[in-house]
Amino acid sequence: MTDPNDTRDTGPRAGTPLWGYLAAVTVIGLTALAVGQVRLGFAELAELARSPLFWVLGVLVVLGELRPVMLSSQTMVGGTYPSTMFTFAVLLHYGLPVAALMQAVAVIFNALATRKAWHRVTFNTAQSTLALTAAAVVLGLFGIVPTPDETWVPDGSSLVAIAVAGIAYFTTRGLLVSGAVALHERRSIVRVLRASIGPQALVYSGLLGLAPLVVVVMKWSPTLVPLFVAPLVAVYFTATLSMRRDHQAMHDELTGLPNRKLLAVATEEALAEAREGEKVGFFLMDTHGLKQINDTLGHPVGDRLLQTIAHRLTHTVRPGDVVARLGGDEFAVLLPKVRDIQAAREVAARLRVALTEPIRLEGMSFDLDGSVGIALYPDHAPDFELLLQRSDVAMYQAKQARTGVEFYQADKDRNSPERLSLFGDLRRALENRQLRLNYQPKVDLDTGRVRGMEALLRWRHPVRGQVAPSEFIPLAEQSYLMRQLTEYVIEGALEQAARWWHTGLRVQIAVNVSARDLLDSALPDQLEVGLARYRLPPDAIQLEVTERVLTGEQAHDTIKALAALGVPLSLDDFGTGYSSLIRLQRLAVSEVKIDASFVSRIVDSQDDERIVRSIVDLVRSLGLRSVAEGVESDDVAKRLVAMGCDMGQGWLFSQPMTAADATLWLRSHADSVFV
Q1: Residues 6+ away with beta carbon under 8 Å from 288
Q2: Which of 56, 321, 453, 566 could hold 439 in an S-S bridge, CB 3.0 to 4.6 Å?
Q3: Which pTM was predicted?
């Protein structure tokens, strides 16, 4: 089966080194083939065609050229065609012109069967002809010049001549093919030879070593020649099983792209080969929109889209660049050589263009997008792991800033050694349930009644002491821990709400959720299951989200699911984001929280007072509740009451309390608890 990600059929541009090399080898090789056929002559060829053995050998050569014996999944190694054994046997018995002709016909049949590009067909014909010519020259030096009229059969005294001819054949063919691979993939020929010489030599020695036996059998028992197919079939299937295991270990099963393991090997090789002043580029790309397609149309459609994306990305980069799939909708691209930052940015831009071009599938058009993070060697990282990590940081920045492409910037990297250590501690704290929820009341400013409690996550580190949420929550947001952290907080809030509601304290608990949480379709499911398990109504819990998150299109499906469930939403930190009046009117929220940075200064700053008053009036006109954060004095509370603000939250009423203290506080304010 043809690999859809194979770029070797893409013709080289005229004037490039690869184009010049292929043209030179093709002209020389095809000239040698033409000269050989002239020397053979039509009459001699017609006479030879009357021999059944000639046709048997021709069929075996053609069949042997259809499928190569593969020992490695690396493109640099390639495969070895079993036809080599019969072609070399024809060379020993009938001479160069007949062997070159049979090989050329077999290459053409292979091209028709596999739909190879014309430049590959002519080059393969030329390089095999030149390899046979090199072997024929060596045989001639030993006085062995077979022809169709004077065939030759080897004996024990000719083993040295055959061995040297076989080495000449293998060396010529190996050098010619390796040169083309090196130019195509822009790698050093030394590296290509080092990668391919071992596996190729093993197979070629077996095939060329059997060729003299084929000739002996041809001479004395021609009807037994087809029996040589049996060991070839055994070798082929053994090699195929080995290669398949190798391919599965190093490639993604769905797309056929290299996986992380092969990407790591390719990256370390590129770094080892990079000369002083040269750069290596490493891109991490996250695809947007696939999850919604999987959820709506099913994974088979999503899988076909991934295969299309893999094909596009592979054909967008240069030959020799490595496109890998790391899992899910995440891809990586390795540029073994890149001129500078600008060149890397241009490649990233082409990748995004290829990704955002609509994909037609099953009668529908799919529009996808992606974010690309770039890290360069040696500018940003010295090895594969750090390149991967820092391109991930850059990708997150591109996604967060919605710029599409970002380079790694050290001043934006929160993954310092200290923070990485803190990340490990956070993961262990979650596993050991060491994080605790504190609760701060939300009070009706007009009546003084308790309208709800906000759950605030707190972490007392055994060594560092109290760790501020501003330190560990952003760390979780940049990792896989965010989902686990949100599940932990929601579960704790539901459990506490159940304790209060089932003992008569019907207080709504508000929980903050992040951008990643609203992109996760599992959030509504977790809430639905949790509410049912604890026998709570949907309004026992409230989710607080920021303006930027709530106005994002990607969170639309989750917000609809939450609205259908009946879980109310609160717009947090209003005034610090980007919501327009029209957007605010359309948001699926029941409450707007005014940021503390404005509220705390309304007594001293007329500007902040006007801002808060305007927000309160706007929220009231839309039929929503307004909540002022950061209420810490009676003067501030009175001003808010005069403005018509509905609720307040801050140290004036209570500082955040543990669950036990919050329970006592609620019981002491039992008459004022809003039911």
Answers
A1: 368, 369, 370, 371, 554
A2: 453
A3: 0.49
